[in-house]
């Protein structure tokens, strides 16, 4: 790479080695005179993830045939701008990759053992709620049924660390972090029902709930890429394990006063109110309500 004319005695222009550690610092941008970030033709600008912007002089010839391949190292020197830069790549294509030595934080088993649902990322959600008011002069039956569908999924994300900017196809010139998500999704139908009796002039409150939520567990490990020419390289990688789970629906009921039922519905606290007050005389006072 070329350089501007400078005073070599200028102490501000003392050479510094480029510190590039694939564990901590990555190349966020590598501009060779094209695109919105270019200041001038032939200008090379390198932006590191730690905020530094390293630049070359304007007399650097533009590279019309940029090097492509798997980035295995970068070295160089800079003053106020980059005076020397060596990029080491491997042209061979990868034919196998494996993530190994994975460590979770926290461990999934520890998360699942936690008795506190909130700390596990789970919450109890009310699916349906109803009140049945018996306005008849004799005991009445009720039947509460719940049917619902939930999408349950489990996924795990493999993302290449920003420190190495590797994609699984092995090419370093792609500047964005590559993410590969695997998992499954399926629909679960939740069914349950409860029946009971309610005394004359009384009310019963029935509601159904399920356990829903997701927990996030961070993980880190190593990514080993094997190439067609027999070379093998290992890099750090990380990701986040996510899971969504739903329990079977549970139904709960308790007796309540007619006034309490009416007040709950009037305040908008509950979804549905059923009463047999309007049934013709002599009809069976049993009532089914489905939500």
Automatic annotation (TrEMBL):
Superkingdom of the source species: Eukaryota
UniProt name for this protein: Uncharacterized protein
């Amino acid at each position: 790479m070329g350089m501007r004319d400078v005073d070599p005695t200028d102490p501000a222009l003392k050479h510094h080695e480029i510190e590039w550690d694939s564990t901590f610092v990555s190349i966020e941008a590598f501009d060779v005179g094209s695109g919105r970030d270019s200041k001038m033709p032939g200008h090379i600008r390198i932006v590191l993830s730690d905020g530094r912007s390293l630049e070359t002089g304007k007399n650097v010839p533009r590279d019309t045939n940029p090097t492509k391949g798997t980035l295995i190292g970068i070295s160089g020197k800079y003053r106020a701008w980059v005076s020397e830069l060596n990029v080491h790549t491997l042209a061979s294509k990868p034919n196998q990759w494996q993530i190994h030595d994975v460590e979770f934080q926290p461990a999934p088993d520890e998360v699942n053992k936690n008795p506190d649902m909130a700390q596990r990322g789970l919450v109890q959600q009310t699916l349906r709620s109803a009140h049945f008011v018996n306005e008849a002069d004799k005991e009445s039956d009720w039947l509460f049924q719940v049917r619902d569908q939930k999408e349950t999924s489990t996924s795990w994300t493999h993302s290449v660390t920003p420190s190495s900017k590797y994609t699984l196809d092995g090419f370093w010139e792609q500047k964005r972090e590559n993410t590969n998500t695997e998992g499954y999704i399926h629909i679960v139908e939740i069914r349950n029902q409860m029946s009971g009796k309610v005394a004359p002039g009384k009310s019963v409150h029935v509601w159904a709930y399920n356990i829903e939520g997701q927990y996030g567990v961070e993980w880190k490990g190593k990514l080993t890429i094997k190439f067609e020419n027999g070379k093998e390289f290992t890099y750090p990688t990380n990701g986040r394990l996510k899971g969504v789970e739903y329990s079977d629906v549970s139904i709960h009921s308790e007796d309540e006063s007619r006034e309490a039922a009416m007040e709950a519905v009037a305040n908008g606290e509950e979804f549905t109110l059923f009463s047999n007050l309007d049934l013709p005389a002599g009809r069976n006072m049993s009532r089914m309500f489905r939500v």
